[in-house]
Every structure is written in C-alpha cells, then in structure tokens.
C-alpha cells in the first residue's frame, strides 16, 4: 500500500495536497497532453464572474526577474457559459474541480455560489476577494476585514460546498483578513494571490502592461508567500493552502512545513506543463524515503 | 482538429549565423518534428528550467527535415542570446508543436510575404504547398532593411519564385515589400508574417483584390497553450464579453486577416 | 560642459540622482577601493539608533530567487560611536552623507535628529519608519499614518536638514502613509524598504534565518517597488526617491520615468561593488545620447 | 593593515575534478594573485552578473602560482555547480582578496588541521610558512570520511609531514582527525579549517596545551567586505551592543580560537 497523501479541506477530501492555481491551468483540458487531472489533489479553474468579461487590452503579460506580471483582467465567459460548455468537459476529466469566483459586489458572489450549488462536478468554491468592490468605490474586498467577511458569509449562505477564501497579499496584516474570513465561516483560506507590480518600457516611456499595473507571480514572490502562510497558519484554525512561486518539491515541502496543508502550483505550469503531477510523485517519494507522514510534515517548522 | 503537443528534450545539431543578428538552429526533436504543421510554433526553454529567464520563448517552426526542426531566430534579448550561445549536442526543452498553422488554400497562386525575421514560418509553408499542390505557383516576396538582412531565401529555390525588396535598395526593389504585390494577379492566397504595419498593408491589398489572406501574429506569451489568456489580440468588429479577444497561441498564431483587421 | 545631473531634494542639491541604500553600503569606506563616494549623488549610511544594538543572531542572510532575505536586526554602534568614529572618516570621503535613523519611540527619533543637527558632515536624514514602535506594542511606525506623521514631525522639529522619510512596502496603501508624512513636513520620501519574507530549511525544518522572518531585497522586488513609486509620485508633491532591485541603467531609467527624482542602489552593490558609480556614468551617457534632460525624464511615463 | 581589493575578470586555465564532488580551478587573475595572503578568500560570480544565482560565492584561496589563483571547491549547490561546468578560457568575475588571513606565528612547529574541503586554505598557508620560516616544522593533519575524499594532499609534499585520518579507516588513522593531535607536542601553532565541531575539538586541545590556535570560519555572505553585516558570528565572552558579533568577511575569516569559543 502506498503512502497516504490525502488531506481534508472542509468537507472535501483531496487525494493529495497538490492543486493547480486559478488562471494558470485554464480549465484543465489545456494540460491534458501533460497531466492526468484525476491524479491531482484538485484543479482550480480560471475565475468566473456572473456576466462575461472581455479582460484587459494587450499587452497583458510581461516577464520580470524570476517572475511575471499579468493583467489578464479576469477574462471569462461568465457563469452561464461555464456551466454550459465547461462543466461537461470537466465531468470527463474526472478531476476534483474547485471553481474560483469573483464579483463586483457581495450579491455577485452570492449569485455565483447559488448557481454552482446544484452542480455535482464542482467540489468546492474558491472565493477571489482581490477584486475591487464596485459599489464601495473600488476598494478591494480583500483589504478590508469586514468586507472580506461579508463576501465569505454570502457565499457560505448559498453553498453547501467547501468554501476556500483566497487572500490578497497586498495588505498590512494578512492575519487580520484571515481571521475575519475564518470567523465568517470560511472552510479554508488560500494564499497568496499576486503582489501588485509594474514595469515600464524605457524607449516608449509607457507601462509594459496596457493596464499599467499587474499581478506579480512566480519564484520572485515565494519568500513573501511563505512568510504569510506561516503567519496565517498560526492565526487561524482552518486549513491553509499555500500559493506563490512554487516550482520544486523543495518549495512544496517548505510550504507544508510552514503550516500549509495543501499547495497550489501557478506560474510553474507555464514553464513545465507536467510539473503538478511530477510534484505529486515527488512528494510521495519524499515521504516514503523519509518514512514520514503528511501530518508529520504539515506545520512542523521549529522556530 | 485535435492538437497534440509534448515537451521534448531536443538536441542541438547545428546553430549557425545566417546574418549579423540571426541564427538557424537545427534540433533533433523527433516527436515534435513528426507532429508539426506549417505555421505552428514551439516554446523553447532558453535556460535550464527554473533559471533566468523564467518563461519559454515562442519561435516558429522554420523547417522540418526528418527528425529535426529548424528554428530561425533573431537575437533580441536575454532568451535569444542564450540560444545563440548554445553548442552542438547541448540539449534544450521544447514544448510543441503549438497553435493553428496556415491552412493551405485551394488556389492557383500562393503568395508568401515575409518581412525580416517574419520569413521564418514561410519556408516550412512553401515546402508543404509544393508537396500538396505541385502544380500551383508559389511566389515569395521577401522584404528587408538591406541585403545584409535577407535571410535564407536561397532555401526556397527551386520551385518558388523569389522577389526581393529592400528599404535601401541594396538588393531587389528599392522600397516596401508590399509594393511588390502590384505585380501579382489572379487567383491568389496570401500568407504573411512580419511587422504589423507590413501585414496590415498586405491585408488591405489582399482585401481589395478579394484574395484570401492569412496573417501570422506575435504576442507576449506565458503558457503557449491557451491556459493563461496572456496572448490576447483584439478581434475586428464588435464582440461582447469574453469574445472580444482571440488568443494568438491557441486560436492562432495564423488568422484570417479579416478576423483581426476590419 | 557636461550634462546637468543635479537634483534638488528639499534644501539639498545632489550632484546626481544616484544614491546608495542604507545598510548596503556600510559607511562608504568599505567601498573606497571601488567607488569614489564624492562622485555619487549621496550615500545613505547604515541605520543608527540612540543606543548601540547588537543585531540579530546568525544566520542573518539567505539567498532567494533573484533576491535575498536579511535579518541584520539593525546592528549599529549607536549615535555616540557614530559621531566619534564614523564622522571623521565621512568627512574625509567628501561625500554627500545622509544618515538613516531608527528608533523604538518618537522620542528616539527626535533625539537622533537633535544629535545630528550640529554636524556639518551630515547633509540629510533618512527616517526609517519600518521599525516596530515598542511603546505601541510593536506595530511598525510605517504602517499607521498617524504614527508615521508623528515621527516625521518630531524629526523635522529637531532638524534643519533635509528630512527624507523611508516608507515600508508592507502596507495596504502606501499612498496613505506617503501623504501623511508629506503633510507632516517631510522634504521627501524614499521607497521601498524590504518586503517581509521567509525561507525554511527543509532538512532541519527550521527557518533559514535565526530571526524567522527577514527583509526581501533585490531584483525580485523591483516590479513592486516601481509600482509603489509610481503611485506615490502621483499622490504627493514632494520628491520621491526610488529604491528596490535597481541593478542596471534600464532600472534607473524606469524609476525616473515612473516619477522618482533620484534612486538608491541596494543589493546590487554586493554583486558589483562599483555599480553605483557606473550608473552615474551610464545615466550621463544616456542623457547625452538621447539629448534629453533629467527633468524631461522624471515622471515622463505616459499611461 | 591596509586591505586592498579589486574586482577582476579572471580567465579559467584549468578546472579539473580532484575527487567525486570537488574540483580545482586555476584562474588567471594577476591583480588578485599579487595581493593575496594565506587565509584570505575571494567572492566569485558563478553566473553572469544579474543572473541566477544572484550573490557571489565565497571561496578560499587554495594556492597562488605566479599570476594564477587556484580555488579548491566542493560542488554543493547551484553556484558551485555552475563553476564546475566552466571551461578553459571562460571568464568569471572575482572580487578579492578579502578578509584577514592567517597570521604566521613565530613557532617551532606549525600544525595545520583540515577537515574535508577545509583543507582548501591550508596549502597556500603551508607554502607561506615554508617560505617565511624554512626551518620550522610543518605538519598537516588531514581528515576525511573516506580515502576517496582525501584531497590534494600530495601537493603539500615535500616539506610538510602529512598525517591522515578517515572516518572509515580506508586510509591512515581510523577515527577523527582531532585524535591525531595526541601525537603533537612542543611549541605549536595550530591553524584549522573544517566543520565547526572539528574546529571546536581542535581548539579545546590547543587550549589545553596552551598552543596558539587560529580557526577559519564560514558564514553566509552577501557583500564579503564588511558592508552588509550579514556574516556575523557571536564572540566568546559577554559583549554589549554592536560588539556582540564579529564579521567573518572582514574581521576574519581567520580568528584566534579564543575570540570565538570561550
Ligand atoms: C508565435 C510566435 C512565433 C515567433 N517566431 C519567431 C521566429 O521564428 N523567429 C524569431 O526570431 N522570433 C520569433 N518570435 C518572436 C520571439 O518570440 C521573440 O523575439 C523572443 O521571445 C524574444 O526573447 P528574448 O528573451 O530574446 O527577448 P526579450 O526582449 O528579453 O524578451 C522579454 C520577453 O518579451 C517576450 N517577447 C519579446 N519580443 C517578443 C515578440 N516579438 N513576440 C512575442 N514575445 C516577445 C519574450 O518572449 C519574453 O517573455 C515569435 C513570436 C511568436 C509569438
Ligand atoms: C570565507 C569562506 C571560504 C570558503 N572557502 C571554500 C572553499 O575554499 N571551498 C569550498 O568548497 N567551499 C568554501 N566555502 C563554502 C562555500 O562558500 C559554499 O560551499 C558555497 O557558497 C556554496 O554555494 P552553492 O551555490 O554551491 O550552494 P547553495 O547551497 O545553493 O548556496 C546557497 C547560498 O548559501 C551560501 N552557502 C552555502 N553553503 C555555504 C557555506 N558553507 N558557507 C558560506 N555560505 C554558504 C551560498 O553562498 C549561497 O548564498 C567557503 C565559505 C566561506 C564563508
Ligand atoms: C496569468 C495568471 C492568471 C491568474 N488568474 C487568476 C484568477 O483568475 N483568479 C485568481 O484567484 N488568481 C489568479 N491568478 C493568481 C494565481 O492563481 C496565483 O495566486 C498566483 O499566480 C501566485 O502563484 P504562482 O507564483 O505560483 O503563480 C492568476 C495568475 C496568473 C499568473
Ligand atoms: C543587508 C541589508 C541591510 C539593510 N539595512 C537597512 C537599514 O539599516 N535601514 C534601512 O532603512 N534600510 C535597510 N535596508 C534596506 C535597503 O536600504 C533597501 O531599502 C532595500 O534593500 C531595497 O533595495 P534593493 O532591492 O536595491 O536592495 C537593508 C537592506 C539590506 C539588503
Ligand atoms: S500564451 Fe497563454 S493563453 Fe496564449
Ligand atoms: S558578508 Fe557583508 S559584512 Fe560580511
């Protein structure tokens, strides 16, 4: 019998702690030549909104040292098209599917949760609170604890699925937000979303992204992500999912040791499309070689 | 159409200068070579995975010879510089083949218009047209700033008529490559790759003559396979929601000109 | 006649906009085999406190992707020793010297400003507000606008020198802090200090830094720094000094175009000890070649 | 003492394996070679500046021959791996010479104790002692896990008595290198470099015999020249404020044992 890699996130049991990060793995099918999605802990699909969004004008991405900036602008076909055209395909993939949702208002989030509720193909919801609240003058839901809590409650009220709230790192104290959403009923938190960054083309003196600013991801942000995961793991009693620059088995282990009970792979999928399933194998081998259980590892950092 | 890709560890067979700033790299990459179609591209890891630069670089497939791919590339930055420094027997990770290639049209005359390094995907295309339609006429219109920049055009011959335009008149027509299209008539399909203004000019002429016109676009890419939505380019016409943009890596890089420019 | 590279920061005119960042250039003398400090816009010396500080136990530094974490712990010999043993040496260097100061309380900052006031060798003061306020339970001065303003006022009240307030990036909205210190009388702001990060040694399961967390610097943070400089340059009417991952002439230009009127070179000094003076030359050449003045460049980003 | 440093573009003359995981690199680096003293080190840029890894790597000066430096290094991570892949005529940026080296004591007997790769700075030292004090006795005690790990000891001969200890007894004494000190008597100065437990053991024995003892320490470094304060090591005894720590790069890497361990 192999080693037990399963982890519990709310009412959801994942085969293993390796997930893919929203917006970096499409809807899973794009990666089918490289990864059997059924082998992963879960896939988190690209963020879905109530109505379709065109996304930002190009250029949308630019490379930086050990990272990249993106300003995709949350392009997606809306919940309707997602249900009609993506759900049948996701059923075939046989993966544990978590749907990342985003909105301009608390009502948007509630509506999305309600629409996803009847779908057996959807195992959980990841609530992206990095978006600006249109009604509150564009301040991001993720930066004000009360607003983050309200979104969380709205989603929980309309969903019996596992609800993960995805935290923004662009805050003074991420533990305050984490505690607020935990108290509001979140089953887990995932972190971090991208850091806000910018790049300028010196010749044209224009921002390299049409949107001026964008989200920084990749190995460059790993130290910040790991610190926040460590802090949040101390601050809340719900599972923490680590995200940010994870590329290698060593990175996965660092996040688990810091207190994450699962991790998401983002930008690394672009460099090695098979990385997520390689990391499942790598983790299994590591635990076998070191005769160590996943529970032994998680949160085992000695300070 | 089922698109099949893989990641393959290619082995450099040759990596030689074709002019001051461009090289041709021949890579043993049998799986990708077997699947590739003209107009498709690969994403090349210019450094060992995990090292700088982080992202793979998109490069068109210039030619396929047996188990080998040829890439024709201009050195413009960190990634292509690392490629230029590779030696025979070095290996590099290649993801591909990617995207939708050119569709070989049923036409009497195929007119390939390349500007600068935009000639890269046209050789593979010319060879494929020759094979698919041995009796059709193929013309390459190659544009460059000067004769020093005229890349690999001898590889197109025989079988392809080659017309040249240079900005400084150092070879062929003194002027824009688009001006060479004045000499073309009949039942024509145009396939073009190069700077955007050039391709727009080509597309405008093609529309006037009601020729078919396929354009090969560039865009900054992260994944190369439709997952990140980074490579968006706006479609012509008014489109709502998620249909406002097409994605160069997956919907392209080759598009019908009318889909992009009204 | 060469091109005019001088910039005005408060009452201080710098020869050129290239400075070195506190903590990365010692007291200047360490770099004397490589750089004539008199050629630089200014050197900012290692942070000084009222009483000597031993600093943190080792390990204090760890490398990360395109960056490094440090937890030096503000080691310094205190203001007394600085005046006795470093000022005479700094006089010899003939450099424009800015002294970085730090404290546990508002009174500490005031005291430091008062002690530096009579020294002609000190051209300006850079106030590091990233330190925790011991009296207010350890919340960093740099994260609460009112506290940042109080520190600024205290220093300005005791100093006739140019006062630069150095902002922490570990906040939700850096423009709020920037505005607060500008209103409190700061002559300029400099940003960014390090992002807080962490790294774990997987084998020992211990943090790689004895202090557990540390400050992330280097090229990895450049996109975040540039974004913040751009935002702050829009938000305040005082000069902005850009810091964060600057390594090349292209980086310098990006920050100037984003709105910085000077920059500080930090981690890059470790990799190429001559980089700061090379950048002065590089900038001069660039402006000459492009027939462009410094004023044309600064804040010229077109969005 | 005036310490003078420079950054020099060194050119690799040789880069050859000395055992499974260690190499010796000979680098033409005339300015640094001219200034170097035993026990000093250099900071080597393992990649082109600005590329991964970011920081330079500290390596002891193993030998100086004319205009050349030799570095003896063990491949342990990204930086040393890049060094191992360098070829003759490649160039690399070297900052040095750095730090305070060994002080050659006025003694009848100089005892050099190296553990594993810690032998690196001892060859340069042995040669300098031989030159400065041709009549003194020099003994090298070299420790390793097994005979496969015994590095370059033949380079010390003639002129240096060599005693060996291996953990597995595959060569010399079966046991710790510290145990070889039992055979040493007289007016001795000990110079040691290797794993910390070994050096602590050596220092304890030296103190017992009232020998002089100099230890060469390691610490993670960013600048290598006293500017970043990253390489702090706690001093023995009670010291207040900024004097609690010494800095390996500037105050060391060689320290009197008593300064570090009480
Ligand atoms: C589908 C496609 C096919 C291409 N085929 C070829 C070819 O056959 N030969 C050739 O020489 N070039 C081709 N290009 C352009 C080539 O991808 C860029 O020149 C290359 O990525 C530059 O990388 P660099 O690191 O040298 O330059 P840098 O400027 O350092 O690159 C920085 C970043 O910008 C991106 N980038 C820079 N220029 C371009 C560009 N023109 N298009 C897209 N991304 C860019 C890089 O990928 C990288 O992420 C193609 C581009 C696309 C999208
Ligand atoms: C003064 C001094 C002299 C040295 N002389 C030698 C020598 O002659 N031969 C030799 O093989 N090694 C020597 N070392 C150790 C050598 O610096 C490290 O093995 C090397 O830096 C590892 O780099 P890496 O990238 O291969 O390993 P990685 O583990 O990838 O390095 C990661 C980071 O940790 C640092 N690091 C890792 N190990 C050490 C270490 N033991 N000491 C200091 N920093 C470390 C690296 O510099 C780098 O910043 C010396 C160290 C010091 C401080
Ligand atoms: C191209 C791109 C698109 C992304 N889209 C989303 C998204 O739709 N919703 C979301 O919550 N996060 C999105 N993210 C953030 C990632 O899920 C992840 O939090 C972040 O990239 C950090 O992880 P990494 O460093 O491993 O990439 C996106 C990231 C990238 C690079
Ligand atoms: C080793 C080290 C020590 C530092 N010490 C100080 C300090 O004493 N005071 C301060 O305000 N900033 C200090 N900093 C922060 C730098 O001045 C600078 O803000 C930061 O490193 C970002 O710039 P960089 O990416 O160019 O290094 C230190 C940074 C490093 C790397
Ligand atoms: S490059 Fe990722 S979708 Fe096209
Ligand atoms: S390494 Fe910077 S002070 Fe020693």
Count of discrete structural domains of chain A: 1
Q: H/E series of chain B, N to C?
A: EEHEEEEHEEHEEEEHEEEEH
The gross shape of chain A turns out to be: globular
Give the helix proportion of chain B (percent range): 10-25%
Return the domain count of chain B.
Answer: 2
Ligand kinds: flavin-adenine dinucleotide, flavin mononucleotide, FE2/S2 (inorganic) cluster
Find the CATH topology of the largest domain in chain B: Rossmann fold
| Model regions low in confidence, pLDDT < 50 over at least 5 residues of chain A | none
Strand content of chain A: 15-25%
The top level CATH class name of chain A = Alpha Beta
Structure, described:
The complex is a heterotetramer, with 2 copies of chain A (303 residues) and 2 copies of chain B (262 residues). Chain A has a single domain (7-53, 74-195, 217-297), classed as Aldolase class I (TIM Barrel), CATH 3.20.20. Helix content of chain A is 32%, strand content 22%. Chain A contains 9 helices and 16 strands. With 262 residues, chain B is of the alpha/beta class. Chain B has 2 domains: 6-98, Elongation Factor Tu (Ef-tu), domain 3 (Beta Barrel), CATH 2.40.30.10; 109-216, Nucleotide-binding domain of ferredoxin-NADP reductase (FNR) module (Rossmann fold, 3-Layer(aba) Sandwich). Chain B is built from 5 helices and 16 strands. Chain B has helices spanning 30-35, 78-84, 120-132, 196-209, 257-260; strands spanning 6-19, 22-28, 41-44, 57-60, 63-65, 68-74, 91-98, 109-115, 137-144, 161-166, 173-174, 188-193, 212-216, 232-234, 245-247, 254-256. In chain B, the strands form 3 sheets. A 7-stranded antiparallel sheet of chain B has the order 4-3-7-1-2-6-5. Chain B has a 7-stranded mixed sheet with strand order 11-10-9-8-12-13-16, sandwiched between helices. Chain B has a two-stranded antiparallel ribbon with strand order 14-15. In chain B, strand 8, helix 3 and strand 9 form a beta-alpha-beta unit. The longest helix of chain B is centred in the C-terminal third of the chain and has 14 residues, at 196-209. The radius of gyration of chain B is 18 Å and the shape is globular. The complex binds flavin-adenine dinucleotide (2 copies), flavin mononucleotide (FMN) (2 copies) and FE2/S2 (inorganic) cluster (2 copies). One flavin mononucleotide (FMN) binds at residues 21-24, 46-47, 70, 72, 74, 100, 128, 166, 193-194, 217-218, 221, 243-246, 266-268 of chain C.
């Amino acid at each position: 019998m192999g080693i037990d890699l399963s982890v519990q996130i709310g009412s959801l049991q994942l085969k293993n702690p390796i997930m893919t990060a929203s917006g970096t793995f499409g809807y899973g099918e794009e990666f089918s030549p490289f990864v059997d999605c059924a082998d992963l802990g879960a896939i988190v699909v690209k963020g879905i909104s109530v109505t379709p969004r065109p996304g930002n004008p190009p250029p949308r991405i630019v490379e930086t040292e050990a990272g990249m900036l993106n300003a995709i602008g949350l392009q997606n076909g809306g919940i309707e098209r997602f249900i009609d055209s993506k759900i049948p395909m996701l059923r075939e993939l046989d993966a544990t599917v978590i749907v990342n949702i985003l909105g301009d208002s608390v009502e948007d989030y509630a509506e999305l949760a309600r629409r996803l509720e009847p779908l057996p193909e959807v195992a959980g919801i990841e609530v992206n609170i990095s978006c600006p609240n249109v009604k509150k003058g564009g301040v991001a839901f993720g930066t004000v604890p009360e607003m983050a809590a309200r979104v969380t409650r709205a989603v929980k009220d309309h969903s019996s699925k596992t609800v993960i709230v995805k935290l923004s790192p662009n805050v003074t104290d991420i533990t305050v937000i984490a505690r607020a959403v935990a108290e509001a009923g979140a089953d887990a938190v995932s972190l971090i979303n991208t850091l806000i960054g910018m790049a300028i083309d010196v010749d044209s003196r224009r921002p390299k992204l049409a949107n001026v600013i964008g989200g920084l991801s990749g190995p460059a942000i790993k130290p910040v992500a790991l610190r926040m995961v460590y802090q949040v793991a101390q601050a809340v009693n719900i599972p923490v999912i680590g995200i940010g620059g994870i590329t290698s088995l060593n990175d996965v282990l660092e996040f688990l040791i810091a207190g994450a009970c699962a991790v998401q792979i983002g930008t690394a999928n672009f460099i090695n499309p098979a990385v997520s399933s390689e990391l499942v194998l790598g983790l299994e081998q590591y635990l076998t070689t070191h005769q160590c259980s996943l529970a032994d590892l998680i949160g085992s950092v000695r300070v | 159409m089922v698109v099949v890709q893989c990641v393959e560890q290619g082995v450099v067979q040759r990596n030689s200068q074709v002019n001051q700033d461009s090289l041709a790299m021949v890579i043993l990459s049998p799986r990708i070579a077997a699947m590739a179609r003209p107009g498709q591209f690969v994403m090349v890891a210019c450094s060992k995975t995990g090292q700088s630069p982080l992202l793979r670089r998109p490069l068109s497939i210039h030619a396929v010879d047996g188990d080998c791919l040829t890439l024709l590339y201009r050195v413009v930055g960190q990634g292509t510089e690392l490629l230029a420094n590779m030696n025979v027997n070095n290996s590099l990770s290649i993801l591909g083949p990617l995207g939708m290639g050119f569709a070989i049209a049923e036409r009497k005359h195929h007119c390939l218009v390349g500007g600068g390094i935009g000639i890269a995907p046209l050789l593979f295309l010319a060879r494929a047209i020759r094979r698919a339609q041995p009796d059709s006429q193929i013309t390459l219109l190659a544009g460059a700033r000067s004769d020093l920049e005229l890349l690999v055009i001898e590889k197109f011959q025989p079988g392809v008529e080659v017309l040249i335009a240079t900005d400084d008149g150092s070879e062929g027509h003194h002027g824009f490559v688009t001006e060479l299209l004045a000499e073309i008539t009949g039942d024509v399909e145009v396939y073009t790759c190069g700077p955007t203004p050039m391709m727009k000019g080509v597309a405008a002429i093609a529309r006037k003559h009601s020729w078919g016109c396929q354009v090969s676009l560039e865009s900054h890419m992260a994944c190369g396979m439709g997952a990140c939505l980074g490579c968006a380019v706006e479609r012509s016409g008014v489109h709502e929601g998620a249909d406002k943009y097409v994605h160069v890596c997956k919907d392209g890089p080759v598009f019908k000109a009318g889909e992009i420019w009204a």
